[in-house]
């Protein structure tokens, strides 16, 4: 069934009108270095609300209003606009942000106002780990889920790996989790390289990596953890790491970033989502509707935003309320269907447990990017995700 999104259901950053029954604040980086991710996340959130309410934009007879707050991908602004959403706009639930650094700044605000914050899609383990509080739920995957799935895809006896990551919570948490996950695979890490988030010249970093791997016997890989622009994979590949016996590896990414993967057919890793991989009714609807409306397939963070939107509707329906304590009691252990299949909020840390996908890149006719083709689905039971809080 085709569902029609009610345009009146979206208000941009203004105070909640008196007629609104349920107010959801999307607090995310509309502008800034991750705005491409942010746009997908918002699009997915709205599609998720539409799908879960069958186009009515109502839950239990109450209307949904979505307000938007721009963090500009800055932690201090994220903290301020989330407080504004809860305190001035009367938001019942907030969703966001994109950046892990911004998310970490926002977590204490949720605790201060005693309101639910659904983190989507910020990844750092510490969000549902050392910096977590009971008002925080995350529908996005965390660094450990990324790391464990990539360790399964890349690890093995005699494999030596170097890492390149951005020097902030996303990169450092990701490498720490990856290092831990590799311990059970027989692989080892020879070198860790961290660079500023806005790095565009990777020559020096790559040379340090090549030097660290010099003389290492056996299979050698460079695993890249990156968000945003800069294209480290393409630029390092242009330096011909194969002359040092090094293969490049990385996780999944948005479609625009997959253009760099076309240069590396056979590249392996693990991904959170690619629209042709999951086989379920929710993803079928998302792909069909997205193609019909935008003439493009849904992307990496569209699926995540949709998962958050569906979770909100199901939680309010089941709780029969938007009261925080009712929602927490309902959401702990809650299972719901998403474009990736079933997700489950783990009661201990409110992290959404979910499938990940081991892929191998192929070059296919008609596509200007490297296509991540499924090797193996890693389900909830296939990954032992640590509890870190």
From TrEMBL:
Residues 1-20 form the signal peptide. It holds the Pfam family Peripla_BP_6. Residues 22-362 form the Leucine-binding protein domain. SUPFAM superfamilies: Periplasmic binding protein-like I (SSF53822). GO terms for biological process: amino acid transport. It comes from the Bacteria. Keywords: Amino-acid transport, Signal, Transport. Belongs to the leucine-binding protein family. This is Amino acid/amide ABC transporter substrate-binding protein (HAAT family). It comes from Limimaricola soesokkakensis.
